Amino acid sequence: MAAPRLLRASAVDVNAPLGDILDIMLENGILRVPVTDGLCLVGVISRSDILRIALSNN
Question: What is the mean pLDDT of the chain?
Answer without folding.
Answer: 89
